[in-house]
């Protein structure tokens, strides 16, 4: 029942003011200067409607420094019919909510026209969509959280996983997910729920996955890492292979999730240790190609004392540009360099 291969979601700032999608999407026309199209959630997606525009405006200001025009478009509507000159450059990094429609997302990536620029590349986005990519990282020697991959979850699978890891505290999540989507904390053979906030027993977990219509979804199971509540998650941002900045995300006392939606708080991590930087670089080097933008999430494995990779986010990571020393200019520069609009020494 268990895949014997083992491997060794963020805080979003609320916008100061809300803007409708139409107010930030100017009329499109063919222009000599390429246009940046930032892919966004569906226009009617309620979960992200309140804050994706903040990130969009943040990015737009950075491209404006290079006199580059920026528009937004829901990812499933692109490439745009008005892009007849193939002069638009598409960036996937605000395509929040793709995990709600994984089949549509995968098909969209496979059908992306080869003569239209999408960053990161369609093949890299496909590789990063299902978290089984962590198996590849582990195989090439990158430290990752020990993980079991299963086709579905039931009580027996959870008991087997706890025995496999020799722990009673587990994390269960879908292989295609984001923002702690449908993540569960499960105690097996223990009833110490008071010291494990928001945890549940195996029977409750199965019932909850059934309620969420995720009981037959491919899942991943990991031992719970106490360091997530003790010292938080470290994220390092790399643009064209160069480190831009780092952040630390911490949970609320009564939760184990670091994302904004769950009360998580993110602050600048000004000091990045040699171990953190080497692990981030190893993860980037293990990708099928160099990502133009990447967020590498890591956490300390208390059993070894070393940091290990939680995720390498290449699709739509919150970039936390408010914590970048240059406010995100290096991100815009990396996009323009990858698109051939700037030389790599500019």
CATH topology of the largest domain: D-amino Acid Aminotransferase, Chain A, domain 1
By CATH, the architecture of the largest domain is named: 2-Layer Sandwich
Biggest sheet descriptor: 5 strands, mixed
Shape assignment:
globular
Number of helices: 9
Average pLDDT rating = 86
Total strands: the figure is 14
The helicity comes to 10-25%
User: How are the strands of the biggest sheet laid out side by side?
Assistant: 5-9-6-7-8
CATH homologous superfamily grouping of the largest domain:
ATP-grasp fold, B domain
Q: Give me the strand/helix succession.
A: EHEEHEHHEHEEEHEHEEEHEEH
Which class of the largest domain in CATH terms? Alpha Beta
Rg, rounded, reads 20 Å
Q: Low-confidence runs (pLDDT<50, min 5 residues)?
A: 1-31
Strand content: 15-25%
Q: Which structural class best describes the helix and strand composition?
A: alpha/beta
Number of domains: 3
> What is the rounded distance between the termini?
53 Å
Organism: Adineta ricciae (Rotifer)
Protein name: ATP-grasp fold RimK-type domain-containing protein
Pfam families: RimK (PF08443)
Report on this model:
- This protein folds into three domains: 21-128, no CATH class; 130-143 and 227-325, D-amino Acid Aminotransferase, Chain A, domain 1 (2-Layer Sandwich), CATH 3.30.470.20; 148-223, 2-Layer Sandwich (Dna Ligase, domain 1), CATH 3.30.1490.
- By secondary structure, it is of the alpha/beta class.
- The protein contains nine helices and 14 strands.
- A five-stranded mixed sheet has the order 5-9-6-7-8. A five-stranded antiparallel sheet has the order 12-11-10-13-14.
- The termini are far apart.
